[in-house]
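INFO batch 0412 | record 1 of 1 | parsing
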Amino acid sequence: MKIIEIKIDNQYTRKLEFIITKNYLAKVLMKVLDCAAGTGECICLFSDPIYKKNYQEVNMITTLVFDYGGVLAYPKAGNWFITQNTRKIIGLPNYMRCFLNYKKIAAALEKALKYLNDNHVLHTEQDEYLQFIVFYKIFFKSMGFTKDMTKECQKLAYDIVYNDDKVKFYDDVITMFTEIKKNYKIVILSDTWPSLKRILKNKGILPMLDGLIMSCDYGATKETTKLFEITTQELNLIPEECVFIDDSISNLENAEKAGYNPVLMDRNDKITTSKYPLAKNISDVIKLIGATLPV
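INFO prediction complete | emitting tokens
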């Protein structure tokens, strides 16, 4: 984030904050500058040499690309793979055995997650259900369980796939999407599974989207630039006109490499400094791109 000085026909000057990256000099939205019709010259002054462009030619942000987890929604139980019903499904003794050993559970989850990541191309909720049965079997085996946990694994898999109530959307999502949809395209780009589409539909969010890119459809995640490149191609986007919002620095780094303008979301207000513009809610994102919401 830098302060830049804007001059229109040398008649007046306003200092505004804009997202400035090495790929994108300035996102100047004309309504913020109160520019009427004309051919005024927009001069952006900052630490680099002066760049001049006719303001009608300056690229504008057209698309907001949101991550899902940690940006739009969060797991009610605090973990995406351990739902609120886990204790009821596996029983209190098994639950205590698992979750009193934090180091062992972290290693078991990591091993089970490796299975998910190595087999990430799947397109139906049934595929997802069957995959999570295996996920939980690997988890319990890694935790040292010797008894047959098949029934429990089936119930856990069903709960994580078909229970919409396991997630909670942040309070501003519906309201803000309704407003920003008037001026911007909205895309969700997520490392996720097929059931996300149903959840978004049931929450009334899916109809608001101009695109939904789920990693499970392509077998690629945000750990590299590949999924961002797929998003660009599939949705015919211009990366420089897109802001990507995520709560992961590494994901933002890959987005930036792919040409997107990164914004770090900090819903829990825990981050004090960041190399990327910082937002605590969707309204902050709108402010960062220098836009105003419709009245």
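INFO post-check: The CA atoms of residues 27 and 60 lie 6 Å apart.
INFO record closed
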